[in-house]
Amino acid sequence: MVSPPYTKAVLIYNPIAGRRREQRMQQLQRVKGQFERSGIRVSIQATTAPGSGSALSREAVQAGADLIVVCGGDGTINEVIGGMARSAVPLAVLPGGTANGLARELRLPLDIEAAARLIPSATPRRIALGRVGNLYFLSMVGVGFDAQVLTHIEGNWKDRMGMVHYGIQAVRQAAFQPFTPFTVSAGETRLEATFACISRTRYYGPFRMIPEADLFSDRFHVYCFPSRKLFRYFIYTLALFAGGLSRLPDVVSFSASRIRCEETAESETPVLYQVDGELAGRLPITVEIVPDALTLLTPARADGGPG
């Protein structure tokens, strides 16, 4: 399946991510068989608690693995990256979460075995990572509204209903909770928003939200949403579905390599932030680019940039 120079791979997966969990191990065993028929020894290892993905990838690098494969959602991917950032070992991604935003960005099939079959022809590309505090990430940071929505996400309902559950909770958040403002600063740019998306990828979950973003650049693309009105958020949502957010006159966008977000005197409730779909904390934060931080295996069709 995968040709040299790979001889020793570690496949890390999240056993509770996404749906169809009962099929997951069977699929991964078939992927392992394909790898081993091509001469690659494979160890399959499951995450066991929050943060364990970092420990597993760090141990794999130290033990001499020459390929790490991760199967899970974007949160699991970031955990694995945390243990191997700045190493030379390449990372391959298999979609195993609910939204699979990174897999969509790389134009991977959303079937695990089909995605695994692309690894032989994948190209190793050295890319930058995002970082907030001591947390590395590949895709995006959301500040304000969407992070607040995540406080209402329940695991069982998320597993049963997938992205529908996110949508229901977003409507409840918009209808019954205040839109709390905060400031976004980058260089000479300073503005106020109730939601900001700081992204390196075009996809926000399953939606192609920020066409200007480029995973293979050393900059973020930022969308800021200033409104505090429910009706305006309804317009934002319709524009997201239609792929037209950038055409809305009140949506401010810019690119930068370092962004600061802080609460304001009007922030009566804490302003939260999330990293690739996982709640991460409260403002203030500084989000920055770390160049030349990861070797990512990318299929030929993952050309990056707008398009």
The total strand number stands at: 18
Order of helices and strands: EHEHEHEHHEEEHHHEEEEEEHEEEEE
Radius of gyration: 19 Å
- How many separate helices? 9
Please give the share of residues in helix: 25-40%
Largest sheet: 10 strands, mixed
Query: In the residues, how many domains can be counted?
Result: 2
The fraction of residues in strands falls at 25-35%
Highest-level CATH class of the largest domain = Mainly Beta
Distance between the termini: 30 Å
Structural class by secondary-structure content: alpha+beta
**Uncertain stretches:** 155-161
What would you say the CATH architecture of the largest domain is? Answer: Sandwich
CATH topology assignment of the largest domain: Tumour Suppressor Smad4
Inertia-based shape = elongated
| Average pLDDT figure | 88
Topology:
Elements: E1 8-13, H1 21-37, E2 41-46, H2 52-62, E3 67-72, H3 74-84, E4 90-95, H4 101-105, H5 112-116, E5 123-132, E6 135-137, E7 140-144, H6 145-150, H7 155-161, H8 163-176, E8 182-186, E9 189-193, E10 195-199, E11 203-204, E12 207-208, E13 220-225, H9 230-242, E14 252-256, E15 258-263, E16 272-275, E17 278-282, E18 285-298
Parallel strand pairs: 1-2, 1-3, 3-4, 4-18
Antiparallel strand pairs: 5-6, 5-18, 7-10, 7-16, 8-9, 8-15, 10-13, 11-12, 13-14, 15-18, 16-17
Helix pairs in contact: 2-3, 7-8
